[in-house]
């Protein structure tokens, strides 16, 4: 890439951020003006086009996950490179990037290590680029790395109308899998069906229905991002030597669990993955984003932008997400 001719005086002086001033409810989020960040060695300064809203940020805001306050949430975003730190050779100003590995993306400008950003293809919009990284990478690692699904396998996912759920269903169907999913309302069931799910179940009694669908066998894998409320039912849905992939806790964290129970249930496997363990190097990052952008541009994957909120209304976005009133991906737009 060509070297940037941008000088320090060309960088913005100020930025707006939405931050949690202390641990608490959505009312602790406030939007303030701060000094704009300056890219350090190996970093990009990005003018935010859109930032993704994710459950982990509600945990950080509320104090479930310890952070230092005041705290600017957000690891996911897309935008235009407006500044380069020293030793950045792979990007130039004016290019569009996306990332799931930045910090403080609830802002008009954010910093990200160049090694953790990817170029956005011309065919992909800013909103698509911001909506894809975290949920797209999650869906990709779940079905390709945590438990690689083969054509013809039957799998169970939860929250089929959510952001990860819709992406996961579409990618699984493109793979040739049979997908059972759950939703909480008839309206959400229609969304899950539109994403391609073969069976859409209510949460109540879902394990028994999974057994019926699979002729008593159970499924080879459960992808469970709901957590506390579905955990036991997910285990009940698994075939012998099946794999329980607990990748989130939208309903709350799973309480301590006796692993001996896995033996009683048929030698089950259980794992608790998260995105950082599946973006370990440039090769892995390139593989995942290349396949995701490819699925998006080919039409195998369509993203559902469930809502866009002004930066100043991040609290409302958190309320809607925690209240499970949303489908698809939520974005903040400065």
UniProtKB/TrEMBL annotation:
InterPro entries: ADH-like_C, ADH-like_N, ER, GroES-like_sf, NAD(P)-bd_dom_sf, QOR-like, Quin_OxRdtase/zeta-crystal_CS. Residues 24-332 form the Enoyl reductase (ER) domain. GO terms for molecular function: mRNA 3'-UTR AU-rich region binding; NADPH binding; quinone reductase (NADPH) activity; zinc ion binding. Keywords: NADP, Oxidoreductase. GO terms for cellular component: cytosol. Coiled coil: none annotated. Pfam families: ADH_N (PF08240), ADH_zinc_N (PF00107). This is Quinone oxidoreductase.
